[in-house]
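step 3/5: co-fold with pyridoxal-5'-phosphate
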Amino acid sequence: MSLAPIPLSVPSRQLDHISEEINRAAAEVIASGWWLKGNETSRFEEEWARYCGTDHCLGVANGTDGLELALRAVGAAKNEVITVANAGGYTTTASRLVGAHPYYVDIDPAHLVLDVSAALAAVGEQTRAIVATHLFGNVVDVAQLRSGLAALDRPDVIIVEDGSQAHGAGLGQTKVGALGDVAVFSFYPTKNLGALGDAGAIVCQDGSLFDELQALHQYGWTQRYRSEVAHGRNSRIDEIQAAILRVKLPRLDEWNAERRRIGSVYTKAIAGSKLRLINDPDPGAVVHLTVVRSKARDQLVDHLAGLGIGTAVHFPVLDPDQPSQASLPSETDTLVESRAALGEILTVPCFPGMSDEEIDRVAHALNTFEPKLVS
Ligand SMILES: Cc1ncc(COP(=O)(O)O)c(C=O)c1O
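step 4/5: write tokens
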């Protein structure tokens, strides 16, 4: 008898216990006749700002728009944005949309997030911002970045957090979102806090930055039909998505704990083997994706596929190596760890609602992996 497949992610499992609430929330928005910029949006914005520990939150249409708006608002246009090359291209896309130049630095090989020393060493005259992407749920040491910038006498360099893979994570008592100067979140369905479609948010403390973001996200308007800020556009969160996120937000910590528990089962399963989990055991980290590292990655893919277990590579290509970036001159010789990780990383299933049997099957599959040839 063949075993049921275990997909990489099944976001709909999260709805098992809350489908009635979700349906009711969506039906109420439909019945209200007010589908954009209404109570659900403003209440979600308040609740997400409170959760992150920031004064302000602006709902936007998706995470990439959030990055674009944040980079534009902090004056990144025509300047340099320091970032990593292994995080899926979203910051690169946003930088190019605002006419900023991405400057790539290497990653810390243990947790695959921005190498803070490399970022500080790369700060130059043209640097306007550093995007700290908290990848896979691992947290960039933004406090160290901040003190490093102070030591360089560069407090003008803006720290933009990308918290899209780290909702609810933090450093000490401070949550992702409140660590930098401005932070962006995607609520893509598979995220730790996911909508039932596209949605995103930007949070910050600074009131004048928030005013700028408010204007930029709706046509440059400072009041209805009066456009004062150049390069404004339309990027709003829908009322239905905001209402759905309000139903889900109170469960986020519980779901994060579930993801961490799955990560710790896998960690135990691979103890003593040549596999390694890149997820940070620090209690401030959350798990978004469980990423295993192996020199025999392609054999591991086949082994897991043979057992019906879905996997993926996040992400298979460095940003400057993408064909769309060919026209952009980039110095990439320094991306040694980023490049080394490409052929070794593999994301394995981890999502709230995964059954114990599924978790055990993945753990057992990892535990019984025997690479035939390891260089
Ligand atoms: C780290 C990171 N940043 C930004 C994004 C972009 O978000 P969106 O798909 O909502 O535009 C994503 C994922 O989708 C992401 O994983």
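step 5/5: annotate
The pocket of pyridoxal-5'-phosphate is lined by residues 62-64, 87-88, 90, 133, 162, 164-165, 186, 188, 198, 200 (CB under 6 Å).
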